[in-house]
Amino acid sequence: MTNSRCKATAVAKQRGKTDTKGGLSGAAAPGPSKRPVMKISDRDVLLAIDVQNDFCSGGALAVPGGEKVVPAINRIAQRFGNMVLTQDWHPRDHVSFAPNHVGKQPFQTIELDYGTQVLWPAHCVQGSSGAEFHRDLDVTRASLVVRKGFRRGIDSYSALFENDKRTPTGLLGYLRERELKTVFVAGLALDFCVRFSAEDARKAGFEVVVIEEACRGIDLDGSVTATHRSFRQCGISVVGLEAFL
Ligand code: VGL
Ligand code: ZN
Fold this sequence. Notes:
Elements: E1 44-49, H1 69-77, E2 83-88, E3 109-112, E4 115-118, E5 144-148, H2 171-177, E6 182-188, H3 190-203, E7 207-216, H4 223-234, E8 237-239
Parallel strand pairs: 1-2, 1-6, 2-5, 6-7, 7-8
Antiparallel strand pairs: 3-4
Helix pairs in contact: 3-4
The structure holds pyrazine-2-carboxylic acid and zinc ion.
C-alpha cells in the first residue's frame, strides 16, 4: 500500500461539540459557559511528537517557535489518562544527516531504496543534550516513550512506521493492545513527524485529531499547506486548543 492516500470516508467525529463546560460545582459557580469542550475518555491517547531540544530555538534543527508547544501540551496533558511521547533518536552516522554525504547540504534530498529522503543537519544524536526532551515538558504522565530513527540506514518520521513504510516502531501494537481508539497528536514538526504519525494512525484505523496550536511546522517548499490538504483527504480532524481548556 505504498503511496496510498488515507481513506477520505469516515471523517473523524469531533466529540463533545455540543457540550459546554460547566463551572466549578458549588454555590459560587456561574452557569455553564458556551465554550465547546472535548470529552476525553480512557480510550483516548495524547501522542506528543519529538518535543526535544534540537527542534526548539537554539537547537540543531530548530522549528520556528518550537518551544511554544510545551505549555500547550502540558495544559492539554492534564485532561488525558494516556500519554505517549516520541523521541527522535539517531546514531551519529545516520543516513538522514547531510554531513554524512559528501557534497550535500541540509534540506537537499537524496534517493534511497525506500524513496526520496530529505537531508537534515545532524540532530537528536543518541545521548546528546539536543535529543533530550525540552526541560519544561511535563513527562510525568507519559506511560511510554517511543524512540525512532535509531537504525543507521532508515529515517523515521512516523511514530508507527519508519520511512520504508514497513518497519514498525511497536507503537501500533501498543495502541491496539491497550485498546486505545482515538489518537490526539501534538508536537514537532507539524509537516514531518506529526503529519506522518497522524496519517499512519489514521490508515491503521484510529480516529485522529491534530491539535494545531500545540504543533509548529518547518515549512519546506509548501509542506505545511500540503499537510493541511492531506489531513482533509485523510479524515484527520484539526482542532484548536480552546476545546481542551
Ligand atoms: C523531524 C526532520 C527530521 C520531526 C525529525 O520531528 O519532524 N523532522 N527528524
Ligand atoms: Zn530526525
